[in-house]
Amino acid sequence: MAVLRRAEHAWARWRTALSRVPRWLIWSLNEPLRGYLLGVDALAVGAIVVALMAVAWRPSQLLIFIGLLVCGIVAIEATRGIQEVHGTVARDLQSVWYLAVAITLPPAYALLAPIPLAGYRLMRVRSGLIYKRVFSNATLSLAYGSASVAFRLIRGSGASAGPGTGANVLTWTATVAACAVIGWIVNHSLLLIAIRLSDRDARFRDLFGNRESITADLLEMSLAISLTLVVAINAILMALALPSVILCRRYLMRAQQVSQVRMDASTGLLNPRSWQHEAEVELFRAVRTSTPLAVAMVDIDDFRSVEETAGDDVARQLRRDVASMLSEQLRDQDLIGIFGAREFAILFPCTSVADAKRMSERLRDRIAGESIAIESGTQAGFVFRLTVSIGIAVMNESRRALAELIGAADTALVTARKTGWNKICLESEGAGFAD
């Protein structure tokens, strides 16, 4: 009777779970995004089934697999108190363990590895939408399953997974690095397609090609290759690598938190508080080293009427596109942030009056010469051409505080607006002139 009762309770739990399937959030997504997510999930499941049928289970390999999973779980526990950043591509160093699995064990293990770690993280952290977690782990399974297959194709099916000795260590490491790149490409390509289907304005450069993401990816790849080499030499040594991975994981997750707090979500630029803080640092450096510095305030002409006629969604896209065009024209050392509903603030370090005016002219001409097409919503297909007015102020003996520079640049901006749209005005010693 006790067995029957347990069976009835188990069946009741399954029925409850099945009854919730129609209410899963994934069904509310639009096509083709929903179909793509389900297709990638199904492909990963199919690849796992095929790999499991072909693998020959060995106790020594199972022990290595369990050991790497335990290390991954310890890393999750060690950073569980750090809140994950949502709305961005997460970089938490979990793939470090996946590459070691992919190289030292058969492909079936690489395909399986993300599943237990994802399940444990959902149980302990409970953050994020489940369908997104499932999809991201499907991409990881396919990515590192591909890396595992590629390693065996490059090295030959009969070759040892170990690095060997002498010059073979270098060729082995180069092969592992190439397979790590293959895994990175597969994973990020699958993610990028999903992101583009969800947001057509998303760009590879913003997500994966900026300096912070490239640095994080290189760090992750370097750690993964080093850990794989250690595990291939002797699996017990993975315990020595665990503290380094945990420390780097904490650093990356903290850095993502800080970056998210500093940025404006709608444009990807620094928010006003962060811009002013970093501008103060640059201004202090300029005063200390007696180097020139300029501040420009940029305003989108007649943007209020655009908001009133086209709506908030269109205004947000236009503002984001203008921010992107401004960023593309600036140097690495230039500092740009939002400043109000339609204004942008730019700090030009080590920049003379003439250079600040020349760069502002380039920014103005870039915006004026670009047509912005609306890609979604009721205004889809409409094309907008915008212009900007720019006010510039330069640091001098009588103007050395950031508030004074911002005020002078804002005064010059008011003058530029009064003289007409698409104008530049320089505030110099209290006397402005427009161009």
Structure write-up:
The chain is an alpha+beta fold. The protein has two domains: 26-260, no CATH class; 272-434, 2-Layer Sandwich (Alpha-Beta Plaits). It has helices at 2-19, 33-54, 59-78, 95-104, 107-112, 114-124, 130-155, 167-198, 204-207, 211-233, 238-262, 272-289, 303-310, 312-329, 353-368, 402-418; strands spanning 293-300, 335-338, 343-349, 371-373, 383-385, 388-394, 424-428, 431-434. The longest helix has 32 residues, at 167-198. The protein is elongated and about 80 Å long. The mean pLDDT is 79.
The first-to-last residue Cα distance is: 91 Å
| Strand arrangement in the largest pleated sheet | 2-3-1-6-7-8
Radius of gyration: 27 Å
Number of folding domains? 2
Shape: elongated
Biggest pleated-sheet summary: 6 strands, mixed
Q: Give the count of helical stretches.
A: 16
Structural class: alpha+beta
Helix content: 55-70%
- The total count of strands amounts to 8
Question: Unreliable segments (pLDDT under 50, ≥5 consecutive)?
Answer: none
